[in-house]
Amino acid sequence: MAVGDYHLPYTSTPFEGPEKLLEIWFAPSPAHVPDAHAPKNGRIGLRNVPKQVWEDMLDIVKCKVLSVVEGEETDAYLLSESSLFVFPHRIILKTCGTTLNLLGLPRILEIAHKFASLPSVYRCFYSRKSFMFPERQLGPHREWKDEVSFLDAIFPNGAAYTVGKVNGDHWLLYLTTPGQCDANGETASSSPNSFSLSPLQSENGEENETNQTPQNVESDTPPTQDYTIEILMSNLSHKARESFFLAPPVQDAPSESPSLLGRTLSSTIGISDLFPPHLTTLDAYAFDPCGYSSNALLKWGDGTEDGHGGEGYYTIHVTPEEGWSYASFECNVPLSTSPSSSTKNIPDLHTLIRRVVDIFQPGRLSLTLFISNANNNAEEDEDETALEAAQRTFKSALTAQRPVSYTSGDSVTGDRSGENNRLLYKRTDKINYQFGGYNLAFASFEFR
Questions:
Q1: Scanning 182, 204, 307, 406, which has its CA 20 to 30 A from the CA of 99?
Q2: 22 pairs with which residues across the strands?
Q3: pLDDT tens string 419-447
Q4: Calpha distance 14→384 (Å, rounded)
Q5: DSSP letter at 422?
Q6: How far is CA 264 from its chain centroid?
Q7: Considering the entire predicted model, what is its pTM?
Q8: Could you please report the per-residue DSSP string of 262-309?
Q9: Contact at 8 Å (CB) between 82 and 92?
Q10: How far are the Cα atoms of 94, 279, 310 from residue 302, in angstroms, in the given order?
């Protein structure tokens, strides 16, 4: 829900919850930025860019900074329309509504060159779920082909993909291969690649299942693992949506700040307990009259010699209005597909999915796991692959009958919980892709 919309009646104008997600890598890792060995106040690379410079870029995109959390490795900006994450070597810009996300890209390239001596792009990713109200979008975001054309003008070596049913919920992805960009962010001359990969019908007709490997995407993997899980949810239950509407103000009572209201709401409905609180720095905001956004920085790993561990993030955004209700969850902390040994640890993927879905009780949801892989083109072992382990976890978390768990302790019997407070979904899509250096697991589910 946008800050600029909260003076309007929340039933008057549809709001586009599904976000546009732009991620730009200017180097393979923080160790590859020019000032990696000469930090200023403990900060290197893009983290030395002044806040005002990012705010000026966001004016182009048509959103504002609400608050910032500065971590040891990451700066997390909570925006009027979603989030901005700044790392030493990359930037993630996630914006909802009718924001002009891609129009910020040329300015981001200029900022990286001028303020961080990063003149070229290592990788670029752009993705989004299919829009609910595409006719309301502006600029290059009116149609996917226009977004692809805009990106191709900057990155001629990019490739565009449609993941899932074109006439249903689907996910759109554009990515570039590394190492072909000049000082203006433009790639060396090459032919743009564009695919629309149609899923195959399974024998039982229950779901679509596809495994595809685009052969013309060059294989190259960042030296450190890149992991992103997204849970994109729509048609939230009435009971779940209620929590995200502010109560009418009490006359003469002191008003609470949106940040305090956001933190209180996070605790009440269980968002604060998605990950262990002692590992989490949460920044939340409750919009008036409705809506919610939060960023969190997470400490994970055990600092072992193999380099696993560090600072990650998760981000949540909620549009609760009936008719276009939507919630998104995104996290870059690698989650195990094996059960976690302790509630004090980072949860496993199965546990996290259930916690998120229990809070929002969606009628439909899509999950994507995007993970780097050092040897995508090699023959697979007989053992279960990371993609199949993720798909197995998606299915077991959502299709097995179970009681609904609520961190807040309240028994919720909204229209999505069914008999005996059970959530049960059926899988409608299962698609695995292998790109150059990356694997993708995509699955869609509907409430039974």
A1: 182
A2: 93, 126
A3: 345 678 999 999 999 987 899 999 999 99
A4: 43
A5: B
A6: 23
A7: 0.85
A8: HHHHHHHHTGGGSS-GGGEEEEEEE-SSB-EEEEEEEEES---TT---
A9: no
A10: 29, 12, 8
Residue with tokens 């998605």: 274
CA 447 to CA 364: how far, in whole Å? 6
Residue 54: Cβ-neighbour burial (10 angstroms; 0-12, 13-18, 19+): buried
pLDDT digits (tens, 9 = 90+) for 121-167: 999 999 999 999 999 999 999 999 999 999 999 998 899 999 998 88
DSSP state, residue 405: P
Measured CA to CA, the distance from residue 21 to residue 166 in angstroms comes to 19
Tell me the backbone φ, ψ of residue 392, rounded to 5 degrees. Answer: -60, -40
Six-digit token pair at 185? 């962010």
In this structure, the chain runs to a length of 448
Q: Measured on CA atoms in the order 31, 32, 35, 38, is the torsion positive or negative?
A: positive
Asked if 289 and 6 touch (Cβ cutoff 8 Å), the reply is: yes
As annotated, the active-site residues are 16, 19, 82, 96, 293, 317
Question: Radius of gyration of the chain from Cα atoms?
Answer: 21
